[in-house]
Amino acid sequence: MADTELGVVQAQFAEIVWNHEPVASGELVKICEKELHWKKSTTYTVLRKLCEKGIFQNVDGIVSSVMSREDFCATKSEQFVRDTFKGSLPAFIAAFTARNKLTKDEVDEIQKMIDAYREE
């Protein structure tokens, strides 16, 4: 399982890769120089760290994701519920809705997800 703990800088970099992948590492350096004002060495250091975390890969100078943005977010969400609510989705929903009222459309969408799950 990939390590989903990212700092602010790593998260910004990850978004750049996901938005441009697959991208040549040289082109990634140029993008990071323009958008983040980074030097080449900074780009390669952050890339190496995120490759070590299992999120991206750099194969023959082409950078791409091992874990899509959607998979990353799902994994991070699962870890949060597991770590914070002992894996209880109902406990998470109760905590969330205690401060955030759901709209009718959101309730309908959640109900559709539950109905689809029951049909499986």
Brief overview:
The chain has 120 residues and is mainly alpha-helical. The protein is 68% helix and 8% strand.
Structure description:
This protein has 120 residues and is mainly alpha-helical. It has two domains: 8-69, Orthogonal Bundle (Arc Repressor Mutant, subunit A), CATH 1.10.10.10; 88-119, no CATH class. The chain contains six helices and three strands; from the N terminus they run αβααββααα. The chain has helices at 8-20, 25-36, 40-52, 69-85, 89-99, 104-119, and strands at residues 23-24, 56-59, 62-65. A three-stranded antiparallel sheet has the order 1-3-2. The model has no long low-confidence stretch (mean pLDDT 95).
Topology:
Elements: H1 8-20, E1 23-24, H2 25-36, H3 40-52, E2 56-59, E3 62-65, H4 69-85, H5 89-99, H6 104-119
Antiparallel strand pairs: 1-3, 2-3
Helix pairs in contact: 1-2
DSSP strand tally: 3
Strand content: 5-15%
Sequence of secondary-structure elements: HEHHEEHHH
- N-end to C-end Cα span: 26 Å
> Could you name the CATH class of the largest domain?
Mainly Alpha
Low-confidence stretches: none
Rg, nearest Å = 18 Å
Label the CATH architecture of the largest domain: Orthogonal Bundle
Q: What is the CATH homology-level superfamily of the largest domain?
A: Winged helix-like DNA-binding domain superfamily/Winged helix DNA-binding domain
Total of domains: 2
For the sheet with most strands, the description reads: 3 strands, antiparallel
Widest β-sheet, arrangement of strands = 1-3-2
Strand-pairing-aware structural class: mainly alpha
Determine the mean pLDDT. 95
**Percent helix among the residues?**
55-70%
Please name the CATH topology of the largest domain. Arc Repressor Mutant, subunit A
Count every helix, treating DSSP H or I runs of 4 or more residues as helices.
6
Shape designation: elongated
